[in-house]
TrEMBL record:
This protein's name: SKP1-like protein
Superkingdom of the organism of origin: Eukaryota
Assembly with partners or alone: Part of a SCF (SKP1-cullin-F-box) protein ligase complex.
Keyword Membrane annotated: no
Similarity section: Belongs to the SKP1 family.
Residue spans crossing the bilayer: none
Residue ranges annotated for the SKP1 component POZ domain, each copy included: 5-63
Organism: Rhynchospora pubera
InterPro entries registered for this protein in UniProt: SKP1, SKP1-like, SKP1/BTB/POZ_sf, Skp1_comp_POZ
Keyword annotations from UniProtKB, A to Z: Ubl conjugation pathway
A Pfam family: Skp1_POZ
Family annotation (PANTHER family): SKP1
Length: 133
C-alpha cells in the first residue's frame, strides 16, 4: 500500500514531498489537512527550507520510532517470539524481553532527540519558533 504524500512549500519556495503521517506530526499542518485538504500543497510562509528540512527530519524520526514500537508490540506475542528465536524462554522471561526491547526503542529516540538539538544557536532559536508548526 503506497503512502499518501503531502507537498510542503517553504518560505523560500523549496518544495518537500513527505509522507502524510510525517506531515501530520505537526498540529498546524494536521489542521490544514483536515480543514482544507492538501491537494495543492501547503505553503509555510514563516519557515525557510533549512528549518523545514530539520522539522521534517524530526517528524520522520518520530513517525519511524512509533512504527517500530508498534511493530515490536504487534508482532511479538510470546508464542511468535519463541518461534522466531527458537529459544526455550518461559512466558515471564519473554514478556520482560519484549518490555526491554520497547524501552530500548524509547531510549534510542530520547538520545536522538538530544543529538538533534545540538545545532548552532540561530538554528535552535528558529526550531523553537516553529515548534508549533
Amino acid at each position: 500500500m503506497a503512502a499518501n504524500t503531502i507537498t510542503l512549500r517553504s518560505s523560500d519556495g523549496e518544495e518537500f514531498i513527505v509522507d502524510e503521517l510525517v506531515a501530520m506530526e505537526s498540529q498546524t499542518i494536521r489542521h490544514v489537512i483536515e480543514d482544507t485538504g492538501a491537494e495543492n500543497g501547503i505553503p509555510l510562509t514563516e519557515v525557510n527550507s533549512k528549518i523545514l528540512s530539520k522539522v521534517i527530519e524530526y517528524c520522520k524520526k518520530h513517525v519511524d520510532a512509533e512504527r517500530a514500537a508498534a511493530a515490536c508490540s504487534a508482532s511479538t506475542s510470546a508464542d511468535e517470539e519463541l518461534e522466531e528465536r527458537n529459544e526455550d524462554f518461559d512466558q515471564d522471561t519473554l514478556s520482560r524481553f519484549i518490555e526491554l526491547k520497547n524501552w530500548a526503542l524509547k531510549w534510542e529516540l530520547k538520545r536522538w532527540d538530544k543529538d538533534f538539538i545540538k545545532v548552532d544557536i540561530t538554528t535552535l532559536f528558529d526550531l523553537v519558533l516553529v515548534r508549533n508548526l
